[in-house]
Design brief:
mainly alpha; 5 helices; about 85% helix
């Protein structure tokens, strides 16, 4: 189950990062969030961390780093959605990815001991 969640999260973040560069809808979303100037950095972070999460299937240290970093990124995304007044449905993906990455992090940390 954990590997499936890692694959899902890693691929999703990788794709979202790519989409943030290539699909006009995401550019307008970053403007709506107030993060237009940070779109490239956030997209690069999601691509890099998504790849690290996938590679991390072979390295617990890389999984710990990337899942924690993605959890922080998703906590920021959730806070942003709340601050701009998005409803529960619009905010739910950020919450779900936050939960997935926290699960990956805590499960890996627990099994590392």
């Amino acid at each position: 189950m954990k590997k499936l969640i890692i694959l899902f999260s890693g691929l999703s973040h990788l794709l979202y990062g790519i989409f943030s560069y290539t699909i006009p809808f995401y550019k307008t979303e970053f403007i709506r969030y107030g993060y237009e100037d940070y779109r490239s950095i956030i997209g690069f972070a999601q691509i890099s961390l998504g790849i690290c999460l996938l590679i991390g299937l072979r390295s617990n240290n890389l999984i710990l780093f990337s899942s924690f970093a993605l959890a922080l990124l998703m906590a920021g995304a959730l806070a942003t959605r709340i601050c701009i007044g998005d409803g529960l449905l619009d905010s739910s993906p950020a919450f779900v990815y936050l939960a997935f990455n926290l699960y990956i992090f805590t499960n890996t940390l627990k099994n590392k001991k």
